[in-house]
Each structure stands twice: as C-alpha cells, then as structure tokens.
Amino acid sequence: MNPPEKKTEPLHAPEVVSYLDLMAAQLEGALHESEPPVTAISGVIGELAAQIPTLEQQIPGIAPRLRAAIVALQFYDRLSQRLTHVRDGVMLLAGALQNPGDGNAAWAGLHDRVRKQYSMEQERRIFELAAAGAAPEEFSKALATHSAESETDRVELF
C-alpha cells in the first residue's frame, strides 16, 4: 500500500508579503545599526587625513596608510547601497504581490523599477543574468569575477 500523498498548500500572497516586509525591516535595521560606528570611524580618519602634513613629519609613511584606510572604508558605502537596493527590491516585490494587476504588465513594471535602482556595474550584471533566467550558480561566478577584477584600490563612484 502506498503512503497517502502529501498535499501542500500554495503560498498565499499575504503571508509572503509579511515575510518580505520582515526581511525588508531586518535589512533596514542592519543599515541603521551599522551607520553610527562607520560614521565615527570615517570622521576620525577624515580628521587624521586633514592633518597629513603634520602627521607625516611625526610618523613617516602615514599618508599612504591613511589613504588606504579611506579607500577601505568605502566598502561600507557599497555595502550600504547594495543592502538598500535589496531592501527596496523586496519591498517592490511585496507591493507587486499585494496588487498583482495584469500579471505580465505588473511583472514588466517591477522588472523596470528594479533595474533602474541599480547604479553599480556588479548589480547590473547580476540583474541581467537574473532577467535572462540564469541559474544562481552563475550569479556566484559573476560576483567572484567582479570581485577579482576590483581587488585594486579602484573607487567606484555611484
């Protein structure tokens, strides 16, 4: 005798929207919590950088180290922007689930709004892969490739 088939209930939009809202709130909380310490560190490094001529006399070689610290802190700007885009994308998806409208037109509108929010090259590459139906493993490869390309002290302006 075969075991009874397990029936699964489909996901319901209100519950999915609640989870998406929860995820967006968690991202917002993480962004909010991390900002004050990074701002404090940035302020101190900025103050030190303003004193480079004096510091350089007292501590030879400090200038390149301070510049390297400033570049290293820019990770927070990129991380913050990325997390903001994830949060905004989650909120857009939640809104689309709450107001489905015409399926294809609603999806195309969501697709365009998400695409327009990306300003970093890496985000645009990943988005285009997703839009083309790439597998998640391809996202990881693209992220690894982009990370390897940007290992220099290059600053990406956004």
List the SSEs and their pairings:
Elements: H1 13-50, H2 52-58, H3 62-98, H4 103-117, H5 121-131, H6 136-149
Helix pairs in contact: 1-3, 3-4, 5-6
Offer a concise description of the structure.
It contains 6 helices and no strands. With 158 residues, it is an all-alpha fold. Helix 1 packs antiparallel against helix 3 (62-98) and helix 5 (121-131) packs antiparallel against helix 6.
Structure explained in plain terms:
This protein is mainly α and 158 residues long. The protein has a domain of 105 residues. 77% of the residues lie in helices and 0% in strands. The chain is built from six helices and no strands. The longest helix is centred in the N-terminal third of the chain and has 38 residues. It is elongated and about 75 Å long. The C terminus is likely disordered.
For this entry, give a set of tags.
single chain, 158 residues, mainly alpha, elongated, disordered C terminus
Task: Quote the distance from N terminus to C terminus.
Answer: 63 Å
Number of helices: 6
Query: Which structural class should the secondary elements be placed in?
Result: mainly alpha
Largest sheet: number of strands, sense, barrel closure: none
Please provide the count of β strands.
0
* Fraction of residues in H or I helices: over 70%
Instruction: Give the rounded overall mean pLDDT.
Output: 81
SSE string: HHHHHH
Low-confidence stretches: 152-158
Approximate strand percentage = under 5%
Shape by Cα distribution: elongated
Output the radius of gyration.
Answer: 22 Å
